[in-house]
Amino acid sequence: MPKKQWSLLIALVMVAASVFVPGAFAMNFTGSQGNKATFETLEETRASSPVAIGSLEGNKGRTFKSHPVLDGYPNGSTFIYRSANLFGGRAAARMNTNLMVYVEQHFDSKDAAMNWLKSAGLIDVADEATGTIVLVTPIGTSFGNADIAAYYALQTAMFAQNALLAPGSVGSGVFYSDAEYFGGFGYLYFIGIDGGATFFNNHIATNIDFAGRIAGALLINGKVDEIRKVSTSVPVYLVNASDDVVNKYKRANHANAMKGTGEIVTHYNQSQPLQRVVVARTNTTDLPALTKAAYHDMFIKAMRIPVLLQGIDSAGTQYSGYNFDEAPFSLCQRDALINGVTKDGIHLISHQGEDRFSGMKSSKGDYLDTWYEYVPEEVLNGTAAKGTVPLILGNHGGGDDPRQFVDEIGLLALAGNKRVAIVAADHQSLPNDVRGPALTSLVKYMLKTYPALDPSRVYAIGYSMGGGATYTVGYYEPTLFAAVAPLAGTNIEPTGTEVARFASTQLPIYLSTSSYDVRRLQAETSRINDNLANQVKRWLQFNGVPPVTFDFDTYKLSGFKGDSWTVDTLNNEYTSYTWYLNNNKGYPMVALNYVKDLIHALYPEYAYSAWDYMKHFSRDQKTGEIKYNPYMK
Q1: Where along the chain do the CATH 3.40.50.1820 domains lie?
Q2: Which member of 68, 76, 369, 450 has the greatest number of CB atoms within 10 A?
Q3: Higher confidence at residue 574 or residue 165?
Q4: Taking the model in full, what pTM does it have?
Q5: Spatial distance between the Cα atoms of 220 and 231, rounded to a whole number of angstroms
């Protein structure tokens, strides 16, 4: 198809995606703050944020205030730019990009600070990314020890998303507004110039609680004290840095390979390429060009995801223990959407407030009216052959935004790497008797809309409440799917009618839990709990696999040995155990996975682990039988 026709096709698809019937909003979820671009001092944000955040979806009825950790913050030292239409509501704010900019100069007014940000090209970056800029100037004439406490205060306020501290602690019963108003954690990047870069080298990079949350840093002209050591892996883009600075970051990132282009050399870890150090030499500091290069060549390729217990490596202060008070966050691959498309050609097509599925309503009148399609470019432009692209239904957890779920569970990166399509709906308020027919109807809609999708390779994956939704769609119409993966799934019991469906069909399943997933694990005995064990038994019966006798004295975690098993290391950090149980054909129809040391949280490696299991299965469209290909890549 000619490029002009293809562009027209995409435009028509996008227009169609935005059409809705007035008054058809059932659940009315947008995941947006709906704000205009604003520029405020930090003091002004503290007054603005409680009202703005309190009106968002999921926040009404809560009491909000600015975080008390900012009560002693130095006035006039910090400015906040918020791009228009930030993400917000439920966990949507986790999709906002956050640029912390440390510059060793003072501004006489907000106008002067704003003009500097514009001249540096940072406003353009924030607007493109959908995010905020936290512009920090020194408390004194230069950055020093006093600025360390201020940095900790900012970090605490910005990371305490949906934080409600425990009874008896400071701020008990109150939610904090700063994190959703201008903060975030997944896409946090640091830009330090001159003394700001030196401050990062000497005080931020040396503290794992600080550096372990930053997904990338641009450091221009910074120095470092000889005694300082970089505490953990952090991607850095170094401009005119000394050899001492370069070598400290190379050691921290375990760089063992290098490549170069012109005046730019990249040192990186061959097995973990996100761990890299870009070294640039220049006689003229073109700040807009450097900002753009660091953002597009480094920042948007990495994100940080928290999966550890709170407080392990973080400061023991009166504010410790808040949501996401964890370090280090996992450094994970990101496939960023820029103007609705990733660099590797995955297009996001949004549907909000549509009535296509309004015939399937709950007793309250709720129905599926919002969903998001992640479609490979070759599907849209017609170059993918008919029936060749797999489809995954992604089911978000309780309180999550479907788009945030797709990114943080790793499905967006998977779509780009493996060329699969994803569809994810907002099903937060739907009961199971509506989830089943609505979500399976959504899958059929995708198959009809995009002929390149392969109906024999349709899968479902979900986490927590979304894991429960994955059970639900598997019970409701098992023949639609080739395999399903409920991860840390809410236990859902099938009805008699649903059980009867498995008399004539089977459905491979991948079940997963982790060390501190207390709802699926009996922590006091370090074994899977009875609900998860019963799911294993149930799915063995569904899939014609011989039953197992659970023996937790011999097999501490799983309760059984398995016909085969694997032990892997995910992202070079967490050990993953998987046990497989086979039918009489030798197909591993039931898999049980356990990841050591993780809490109940989204983790991008989960999508890859589940995919590595599910991809081997397909469903014959004539006979309905499950096929297994052990050599599928």
Answers
A1: 36-332, 342-628
A2: 369
A3: 574
A4: 0.93
A5: 20
